[in-house]
Design brief:
Elements: H1 9-26, H2 37-45, E1 50-54, E2 62-65, H3 67-72, H4 77-80, H5 91-107, E3 109-118, E4 124-136, E5 142-149, E6 151-154
Antiparallel strand pairs: 1-2, 1-5, 3-4, 4-5, 4-6
């Protein structure tokens, strides 16, 4: 049997950066911080809300998606973490998404974001009340960006 992805050392470490960075920018906790880092990684992966992130590449690639995110975007972990982040939005919405990420890079985070996203199969949905934040390492250097949200609405299939 293969160990769950959230038990991998790199995912546990990244989960801690996601949680620490969220608190740094918002002064709120994304989820309770009791227990070991592995227990926190498990809770983050199985949370009832979406958590996604990407790195700082020139064309950022997704590097984390919890169970709800994987289901919403209709991908496996392996597919998700090879996907350029921009592909989570349709081409018509990519400029608006890029503008948001620039604002977050400058300010640290943005609350109450709303935007249209698209799954791997082409299903469109509106993300509402999302928080988007910079992920920083222990030295305070930006190593990625993340988003969390609980509210989304599936849009009708376009014909």
């Amino acid at each position: 049997m293969v160990d769950p992805v959230w038990t991998e050392a790199s995912v546990v470490t990244w989960s801690q950066l996601l949680l620490d960075s969220y608190h740094r920018w918002t002064t709120r906790q994304l989820l309770p911080r009791d227990g070991t880092p592995v227990e926190q990684a498990r809770r983050l992966f199985s949370a009832s809300f979406v958590v996604v992130s990407h790195g700082t590449e020139a064309d950022p690639v997704l590097n984390y998606g919890n169970e709800v995110a994987l289901t919403l975007w209709e991908m496996t972990w392996e597919q998700f973490v090879r996907t350029p982040s921009r592909r989570t939005a349709e081409p018509a919405h990519q400029a608006e998404r890029a503008d948001l990420l620039r604002v977050v890079e400058e300010r640290g985070y943005w609350d109450q974001y709303r935007g249209i996203r698209i799954s791997a199969s082409g299903r469109r949905f509106v993300v509402e009340q999302a928080t988007v934040w910079n992920v920083v390492d222990m030295e305070g250097q930006r190593v990625g960006q993340a988003a969390a949200f609980s509210h989304w609405t599936m849009l009708p299939v376009q014909r």
